[in-house]
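Model it.
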Amino acid sequence: MSSVSASNSNSGEQLITAALLKSQQEQNGKMALSLIDAAISASPNQVQASAPTANLGNHINIKA
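Modeled.
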């Protein structure tokens, strides 16, 4: 009978451990996202990519 109660106790500890690990991972994720947001807002010059220009191939010499 002691092996059954030990098994149940072990399962309970595993569930508690899994719940704690899940909450820790969620906190780590939130901290990582806030760090990324802070880094984006702190960047001094956010250069936006200019629209591509289609200059290549406009002047093709077809007389050889």
